[in-house]
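User: Please look over both lines:
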Amino acid sequence: MTDGAEEAFGAAGRPVPPYAAREAAAGNPEGPGYAGLATFCGRPWLESEAELLARRPDVAVVGAPFDIATTHRPGARFGPRALRAAAYDPGTYHLDLGIEIFEWLDVVDAGDAHCPHGLTEASHANIRAKVHEVARAGIFPLVLGGDHSITWPAATAVAEAVGWGEVGLLHFDAHADTADIIDGNLASHGTPMRRLIESGAVRGRNFVQVGLRGYWPPPDVFAWMRDNGLRWHLMHEVWDRGSRAVIADAIAEAVDGCKALYLSVDIDVLDPGFAPGTGTPEPGGMNPADLLRAVRQIALDTPLVAADIVEVSPPFDHAETTVNSAHRVAMEVFAALAHRRRTAAGGMPDLPGTAP
């Protein structure tokens, strides 16, 4: 083995995590999770495009504090700040995958897109520009909403960077969000998926939804979805067939013929008993364990290039149950991406209770 190989693989012949020496410690090295400035998981704060290009991280967290497009309970504008403050503990070791996430994955917090209150067009334009800065540099954008209307500009920006019509979209939600117009608003949180399909940013055949339930949308919207090749898995199918089987089918459908995947998680896909802090809660949803496993499976098994987590409304939350579930969705994405990097480097899981 050459000196360079010994340096890369360490004295014991194990791969050295690429970011092990970059940070003083994983997570927030300055103290407990409730202390200090609230960046996401205590990660470095790099707002400018020049800083991102100089560092070239693997992932950049982008806030989209916008909720003017909601049709019911507001408050999702406070989601990004709440999610940044959600880490009650600085630990970032993923027990199931046996990995210290930030030793293998370089994640930074890129701050928020400017969302002036009451100005939908300007806010959406700024979200699109901010996400595009990240995606065109080959950095994975993890977008924190905000109501679900932010997926229109965010996914559009990713399609511009990766390839128009080359990005599939896997969408977890209680609602289809494929209406044409709601209360005179073409940019409602109930319309973003139709806008993406109409624009061609995402092809209908590669748009897949999981968790739909309740009493909306009406049959004419489902007829439009069917005519445009969209596919969906209602919540009763998740109950009847099981989450793993449904997610396997959804993955196959979303990536068929695409070179990349965008994941959009509306936290109201969870049952409101688990996630009360959201704008349009709908009983009968998923439980957090199934959602987290599904997100991990998607990030492990697909060409995932971007994700968003939306509709977290802290004013309606109880005991931070909604915020913590949403935060863990992001952590599952990070852990899976880190695991893929480790596997590519020839590393092995360091599971609790196993010998080195």
Observations:
- The mean pLDDT is 92.
- Strands lie at 59-64, 93-94, 99-100, 107-112, 140-145, 167-172, 207-212, 231-234, 260-266, 304-310.
